[in-house]
Amino acid sequence: MANCQPTLCLSLSLLLLLLCSKPVNSQQPQANISLGSSLAAGASQDYWLSPSGDFAFGFQQVTGGGRGNSFLLAIWFNRIPQRTVVWSANRNELVPDGSTIKLTEDGNLILADPSGRPVWNPNSVGSGVSYGALLDTGNFVLADRNATVLWESFDQPTDTILPMQTLARGTELIAKYSRTNYSNGRFKLDFQTDGNLEFETTHYPQMRSNYPYYESATVTADNLSYNQSGSLFIASTNGTILGNVFDNRESRNDFYQRVTIDHDGVVRQYVHPKRNNMSRWPMEWTVSDSQPPNICTGIKGFIGNGACGFNSYCQMESGMFPRCNCPQGYVFMDPTDHSSGCVRNFAPQDCVVKDGNDDDGDQFDFVEMVNTDFPNGDYQFLNSVSEDMCREACLSDCLCDAVLFRVDGQCYKKRMPMSNGNVDPANGGKTLFKVRRQDSTSITNKKDHSHLNTNVGWFLLGGSIFVNLIFLLASCPWRKNPPNSIDGETLDRGALSSNLRRFTYREMETTTGGFKQVLGSGSSGVVYKGVIGDHSSKKLVAVKVLEKMHEMEGHDVREFTTEVTIIGETNHKNLARLVGFCDEGQHRLLVYEFMSNGSLADLLFRREVRPNWYTRTQIAYSIARGLAYLHEECITQIIHCDIKPQNILLDDSMTAKISDFGISKLMKANQTRTTTAIRGTKGYLAPEWFRNVPVTAKVDVHSFGILLLELVCCRKNFMMEVEKEEEMVLVDWAYDCYCQRKLHKLVEEDKEAMEDMKRVERFVKVGIWCIQEDPSLRPGMKKVVHMLEGAVLVSKPPDPSSFISSI
């Protein structure tokens, strides 16, 4: 920079008048760094401070990743524990212990390794440097004796912009590779020479731009400025603001602020309190805004590996942070870097002709991923086909690695590598990944279940009609008809052969170790701990031994046969799964997937420490997706009728699964409502149950709304207030807090939720919409999912009415 701004020159001049030009203690606040001053990388950890002590310039040690004791020459926030790096000189070439940074006598700033080899120096600096200074803005400058700035770190940013910093056209910010790896990553912020601001993927490891996933369309802009008020905006030459990127509302006097393009490609604005007495703010960095809102769906280009690497899929979590996942049967290319992409954990389909067979397609099956798409990987499109035809088309094609099937009959065949994978309800349909059958052990989650939650037994003893009658349908030994028929009618084998395994009683004895370890007991039977599979693929299960079987009339059996056949064909990660059964002689046993974390009721209401906010938000998403699947994605719509925390089970990874379909109601293809007796549990029932009118899937929406508010507040819908000696209704309190703009009262003892009040407000508004007295006002569950995820704007909900409190 040839000439400094007048205010900057004045500030430097005053500093020069107040302080002498001799070297000062390296860890004391200082105004300038004299010629000849130096710092060394090592245990001493000397650094140069800004006058206020807010920023430091020196060496930061970087460990891990096989780097040993390596050092980064950097500027960081010095008064907070995280010491967050905002600028670095040698991000792509770390230096070892004993390296030095020196402002030489002739005015050159040189970073050298222990042998004296120069590693970095700002080559734009000319002669005439009299001193260096780290300013309270976080800007490191080299200036002449007239306080004219000859070089500044603000002109060579890495991945962060600070308040009072302005970027000229042609300036780039490059994200670091990972949280702990500061080298150039796969994304960059590019303020282009024509004035357009773009966030772009790169041709990693080259930094050449790939394609933009965000752009401002401000081609007449002159600069990108982060002003003292905390707003990041694009302005023209005359100062006219052409567009705001972020508009922060927190005072710079009270908060440290920064805007960073993070390793995941999201540009986030962060704030951090300067003082410990700001009780409503955590003493850590908090995201105040981000762009794009959803990086998983924001990246759509046909070149590059997307947000999470090839063959991986991206899912938004905790509001603004994505998570990268591998499909079942695939593993991360680099286990320490989940953005590295995924590779098969099994041998691919063989295309070589052997013994007259074209391929080994019969050795493969599919893993289903609902609402998941890999848009870049299609090589053939089939139209007006059934799902079975779509599957067969892939099985018979050795080049096919997956297919995307949509309910309208569209089938897209895909092959590796696939990019930009993401989970989004707007995707629709499902991706089916082809995996090798005999390698199923390699795609099973082999976690150590050393400590079991014995409470799981109690949730398997609800006396569900659904599970008890499966055995009647399986063999019906008390009837004269053949095993697979009732009154001479052939059963649909889907529920009994596709998903369920038939065990012998001897296998059950072996599985449970002689029925030794009891997990729980109830009126309908006892539940035992069991293990199925061989040594290489053991899987914990809960085995329920039924003691009573209830007879049914033939008409009821036929009706339930149809229902259980369809329910048996459901397949969703948020529905509890029945693994198999035994119906040998007089023995009736059910085998369930093991739920090591019990029920949601236990998690919310029976523990002294409330579950963290992130866990609760993921549970809310999971339940909503499970219900959306039952209501809108099954061939036959299923109304659960009894959504409540006791019927939501949690597996070892805290994934929520809807359970107990014993009182569920199925709808015919042309049916939208049904008349039936009251089903469900007090406190979660929709008003229409009490009005003798036909019910719809909206009764589940109402129950979900109650449950959602319980998840937000960690309180039961009905709860006795000891001090007032009266019953408090959660939905009334939540609505009052919303109307009075006092939503913080709902989560005031929850630090994580207090940091995420935008999501808290969104969840509460969704909950209120769901519990509207008029069913037509309640959104469908697919829309609820979109509202929860922020994909759909949630408008102000009306008063849900006082009718709820009387139920």
Automatic annotation (TrEMBL):
Location(s), subcellular: Membrane
Gene3D superfamilies assigned to the protein according to its UniProt record, in alphabetical order: Bulb-type lectin domain, Phosphorylase Kinase, domain 1, Transferase(Phosphotransferase) domain 1
Membrane topology: Single-pass type I membrane protein
Binding-site residues for ATP, renumbered to this chain: K544
Occurrences of domain Bulb-type lectin (ranges): 40-155
Apple domain boundaries: 351-437
Entries under PROSITE patterns matching the protein: BULB_LECTIN, PAN, PROTEIN_KINASE_ATP, PROTEIN_KINASE_DOM, PROTEIN_KINASE_ST
GO cellular component: membrane
Record CDD domains: B_lectin, PAN_AP_plant, STKc_IRAK
UniProt KW keywords: ATP-binding, Disulfide bond, EGF-like domain, Glycoprotein, Kinase, Lectin, Membrane, Nucleotide-binding, Receptor, Serine/threonine-protein kinase, Signal, Transferase, Transmembrane, Transmembrane helix
EC class of the enzyme, as a word: transferase
Domain of life per record: Eukaryota
Catalytic reaction(s) noted: L-threonyl-[protein] + ATP = O-phospho-L-threonyl-[protein] + ADP + H(+); L-seryl-[protein] + ATP = O-phospho-L-seryl-[protein] + ADP + H(+)
Family the entry assigns: Belongs to the protein kinase superfamily. Ser/Thr protein kinase family.
Protein name as annotated: Receptor-like serine/threonine-protein kinase
Organism of derivation: Linum tenue
